Amino acid sequence: MASPLILRHVFWGLSTVLEIVLAAILIRRKLYRTHPAFLTYILIAILQSCFVATSYYYFGTRSRVSYFVGWDTQVLVICARSFAVMEIAKNVLGKYVGIWALAGRILVFLGLSVLAYSIFSSRSRWLLITLNADRAVELCIATLIVAILVFVRYYRVPMNHLERMLAIGFCLYSCFFVINDSIYESWRRPFADLWNYLDILAFTATLLLWINAARTAEAPRTSASPVALPPELYADLSRKLNSRLLVLNNRLNHFFRSEDSRP
Amino acid sequence: MSIPVILFIVFAIVLVFLLAWAVRPPKRVLLSVDDVLNALSEKRHYARLPQILQCLRQDDTDFLYARGQDQLATRLRRDRKRIALRYLDHLQDEYQLLLEASRILAKVAPEVSPMAEFDRFRLHVRFLLFCRYLRWRLRLGLQPWDTFGVLSDMEGDLTLGLEVAATRIGERAALASELPLFLKDRRSDPE
Q1: Which of A181, B42, B72, B162 has a CA that sits 20 to 30 A from residue A162's CA?
Q2: B20 touches chain A (CB under 8 A)
Q3: Residue B34 CB contacts under 8 Å (≥ 6 apart), including other chains
Q4: Does the beta-carbon distance from B19 to A155 stay under 8 Å?
């Protein structure tokens, strides 16, 4: 059986190829118009793979330089990932001014709370500080995506297949990352080789999910749909709804009166 | 493995389950504003509550037992219980409809009050729990008086809340639609 280190290298190469394929699909289908942050994230991930591979080649996998190159570029990747998640939230909920204003406040509060909890409850070992920060951000991302999807479900907000798959991919990968990191924190030595391999495996699965969604996604329309309903429609809607509600209210009042006269 | 680490793992697993729940398609989807408005104009069921409550009363069938018509009384009770359960289903449907209307309002509203939304959500959860509780009470042959009253009140509260929200949106819309006219009048006014 191949060792986790070889498997890690194989899947690392495979994931980089998949990243390039995904970036090509996003560009060819002009999806960068609606998802510029997501494309940037994929491009940064490709660049990170190139930098780390170069560093491993020249300085070795266990060198200090490779360690810093790996973790420093990871900061960029995490930032790009966070922006991509914010982009999903904006694309899905941004059209609904009222809901977006409410969701924005709740998401910021939720994100900061999870981030604060994760940072304060992590061990303060210097060696694991980047890992813990990474885990905190991943947990924050997963929570935000679940919150966005709960909003979408509660308000019956339409969400296209691509956005849904991007959100699911981000969330599943982030959850897996948190679990993987937590296990690694406890059993570092026996788990070290497997940890990286499992991480790349999860990311490869996520990339496959995204590629499939991007491949079948509709190209964005050039004419942007109106962001909010025009005021005249508000007036019409409220008039209709008010008259219906008035009927309901009258019936309700009638019911209360009849309930009072109940024997 | 320390407790915070275990909590991280548990939290991540809970998030995966929540994700699975959140991406499920909703049970019932009303497609448009018109669908909701049309449905709102349909005949309401809660107006029949007094009759339902009356038929579930113990003393309504006591005279049959007193006359030795046990079999008939039992059948009558069973039938009435079944009707009450169906009534409850309709009541829940009506509530869902109102909730759907409030969601549509939230979608088109230029501003959504967090407290109002939270109250509605709380009310929704309470309504679902009461409904389930009431169903079990009916199935077990217990008297449902108080709970029925609470459910009707909740539906009434939601209706009133919707009216306030719709009025507010209407006022804003009226203001927005009047503004261009006002500006036009001012421009054409030869001062």
Answers
A1: A181
A2: no
A3: none
A4: no
